Give the backbone structure.
Amino acid sequence: MTAPKTLYDKIWDAHVADESEDGTCLLYIDRHLVHEVTSPQAFEGLRMAGRGVRAPDKTIAVPDHNVPTTLDRASGIKNEESRIQVDALDQNARDFGIHYYPVSDVRQGIVHIVGPEQGWTLPGMTVVCGDSHTATHGAFGALAHGIGTSEVEHVLATQTLIQKKSKNMKVEITGKLRPGVTAKDITLSVIGATGTAGGTGYVIEYCGEAIRDLSMEGRMTVCNMAIEGGARAGLIAPDEKTFEYCKGRPHAPKGAAWEAAVAWWKTLYSDDDAHWDKVITLKGEDIAPVVTWGTSPEDVLPITATVPSASDFAGGKIDAAQRSLEYMGLEPGTPLSEIEIDTVFIGSCTNGRIEDLRAAAEILKGKKIKDGLRAMVVPGSGLVRAQAEEEGLADIFKEAGFEWRLAGCSMCLAMNPDQLSPGERCAATSNRNFEGRQGRGGRTHLMSPAMAAAAAVTGHLTDVRELL
Amino acid sequence: MEKFAKLTGVAAPLPLINVDTDMIIPKQFLKTIKRSGLGVNLFDEMRYGDDGSELPDFVLNKPAYRDAEILVAGENFGCGSSREHAPWAIKDFGIRCVIAPSYADIFYNNCFKNGILPIVLPQEQVDVLMKDAEKGANARMTIDLEAQTVTTSDGESFGFDVDPFRKHCLLNGLDDIGLTMEKVASIDTFEAAASAARPWV
């Protein structure tokens, strides 16, 4: 009888290619996802050292951060630096023979949406990408985390990563969610409870009835923001929903290979008496629709609350909260639902999947956005966009007054022309509300797609339950 | 990689928690395809006004700290994005060592890959070092990686922990890929076994 293991322990053990006496391991990487921003220096490093890509078949590249999302993008990228970066990825993909989805391909999109959509991401795999939101792929029970560019080069050259094992943390969401509460509210509420450093040094496994009840899209939203809680990776044990999602995808196994894969995937769960270094439990019914008020993802409150005061906090957070309130231009005591917005952004690797667009469209159906607002939907991939058009969602957005864009990271980090101006306030479905994240001086409130749609209708942060 | 052994230099105080990598190097500077030249944009939005002029109150713009080689900061330093442009910018500015009570994982890891030593010390000791750093250019701290100590300008010394493998790599300026390539036989063996066990991967 072997010792009980967590899901993380099982995936880790299945991928250790070498272990030194001090516990430093070489972890074998099954899938390496690559985008244009964090890879050029890595490919350059390979060239300078005369090295190749060890496993081009396990390496998948797609440009997403810099690409324009306006309908005229076929005419080329106007910003020269952005264009050079995307051209460099084109060239590197060709030179090193890796899988590639260029801007012109309908399958192009945000790397963390394309990977699962194409069946590259499967349960039990190790997945890395030079992007912190790689945690997204943990929704499949894959060990997935973000890496720096030096590590991108290391994985390209050796297909391994030098790693020491993290600790195990269990985040359990019990019971059922109430109406109007979504995966985004779960993940933000967990960060609100643990803080942005609460998960540092851990791999989180999310479990409990409320997590089981989520779709694969919802599970990806939850795992996506594990990094915002400080954890390098978030995991959810695979189940029938996971297998159903993967089945038939272009790069998922077929026939006998599929059966063999499912047989192994069914062993991927945490044993009952496995050891946890830290456990957090939230009741699903206690989670409300939430928004952020400050400049850290831990600054989370239910939409029914008021803007806090710096004196509500302790230690270094007092100064941080004061700085946030000034940056955000908010007065303590103001009801959050009275905060007026200028812009609405629906998209990103957190909430740019079909279910997110359905949830937003459900609120917007037959309604118009508030006069004077700027609102845009940026689907997470070309295929999400096509499906939304087929389902009639695009028409709902357009009739409501939203811009209907092409796929990319867009205003989540504003590397392309989609940016906030100084002082502009945005209801965003993305993942970071840092100072300047969406543009210098821009003010970001994070929330779910349904909440962002509700804010678009009223022109201020709004409790979506009033519109249900 | 550049070796790191011993460093005596000016330490700049940045008493903020949750300093994120968007603050360290804003996204408009991620469009480069090089590693060098980012130092001028380190902390860009805190360091320069809308018209590009220096904001005199920001620590790295003060005469005493323009040549700082050490940065003392609050907890959870380097949170957010995985961008290695953050340590590249820090290094390019001339900072070789950061001292804080805690770091985000990816940033912490990225520092070691670039010859930067991120030191973790308890909050009380960071508070002492922050006060020392606030004294300005004449107060020079000493970092000794071999001995694993930080010494203030007054001679007060604190020991710190560092992973032995990472210490070895920093002291000797070793390249990770070169080290891993020495274990290529293990990788070959693992790859063959894994591909037999999980042929669908």
